[in-house]
Write a structure and sequence with these properties.
By secondary structure, the chain is α/β, with parallel strands linked by helices. The chain has 11 helices and 6 strands. Bound molecules: zinc ion (ZN). Zinc ion binds next to α5 and α6.
């Protein structure tokens, strides 16, 4: 103690402070001299048998072997929380009963929870809505994606008019996954306050396509495009033109363009399948690259460390 006091006096006299052993007072990197004490990984012996924090001057707990001594508090992040709300309607309940064990919600929740540093929880709910839609909303301050079984039933019926039951089921499952990622796109835009410089509905579609392609499931995006083609009533009513969503036929072409642009060689047949896209297809690679890099750059700062 006497030596410490003499050092303090030396500091006061601007004379520097180094003892016989060169001990620089309060140097947190110093670990020699005096009694040796075993400290936790975040602390070290101050040279006098006391553990001090590596990054500061707080003393450790008395349990010197505590490896959490001085450890910074672990970061906590929000997560995507899945729930199934059930349905009064028997047909809609049977949709939940079939979809639930397939685990789509859980797979999406787990992969995006692990990838992104959510500042809050996001609730992902399946349920009967009484209307045909899926939506992202903030109810009582909580961020939530609501996937309506009513919409799944509508999608399935739409495909069932043109396809065998088994195929219609697969196409509906694909489109359901596309819609889920579309709503997740809305959720991420809101939760991370991402800039959107054009129609957010189109941005949400592009998020869905980019992520499906990244998962190796471009076929799901193609199925969704087929859904919008079949769901189009070709009337172009004023209220449809005024809606924030692009027209169903435009969504069809926009999705196909991104899929084609992701791999023009694999999807080369699109040129003959959809001759009305001939003028646009040569530019689709740029559209794809722009969508892919934009989403990557927007979300990179929010990646989970
Ligand atoms: Zn939307």
């Amino acid at each position: 103690m006497a030596r410490v006091l003499s050092c303090l006096m030396a500091i006061a006299l601007l004379a520097g402070c180094g003892g016989d052993d060169g001990y620089p007072l309060y140097d947190p990197t110093y670990s020699g001299g005096g009694q040796t004490t075993s400290c936790g990984t975040n602390a070290h012996d101050d040279g006098f048998g006391t553990c001090v924090c590596v990054t500061g001057y707080d003393w450790c707990s008395e349990d010197l072997s505590d490896t959490n001594c001085c450890a910074p508090a672990a970061e906590t992040y929000g997560e995507i929380i899945v729930s199934y709300q059930g349905a009064d309607d028997e047909g809609l309940q049977s949709i939940e009963d079939r979809l639930r064990p397939r685990g789509l919600f859980e797979a999406v929740a787990s992969s995006y929870t692990n990838a992104l540093a959510f500042p809050e929880d996001l609730y992902l709910m399946g349920g009967e809505c009484g209307f045909v839609n899926a939506l992202y909303t903030r109810a009582n301050g909580s961020a939530a994606v609501l996937m309506c079984y009513d919409l799944y039933a509508f999608i399935l019926n739409t495909f069932a008019t043109r396809f065998e039951a088994a195929d219609a089921q697969i196409l509906a499952d694909h489109t359901w996954a596309f819609v889920l990622l579309h709503e997740l796109g809305h959720a991420l835009i809101d939760i991370f306050d991402l800039p959107v410089v054009a129609a957010e509905e189109d941005a949400a579609d592009s998020f869905s396509v980019v992520n499906l392609v990244a998962m190796g499931r471009a076929d799901a995006a193609e199925s969704a495009a087929a859904f919008w083609f079949l769901a189009d009533d070709h009337q172009d009513l004023p209220e449809e033109l005024a809606d924030e969503h692009s027209l169903n036929r435009q969504r069809f072409y926009d999705i196909l363009c991104l899929v084609y642009g992701s791999d023009p060689t694999t999807y080369a047949s699109m040129g003959t399948q959809f001759p009305d896209m001939a003028g646009r297809l040569p530019r689709c690679e740029d559209e794809w690259e722009s969508a892919r890099t934009s989403w990557n750059e927007l979300l990179a700062p929010h990646a989970r460390p």
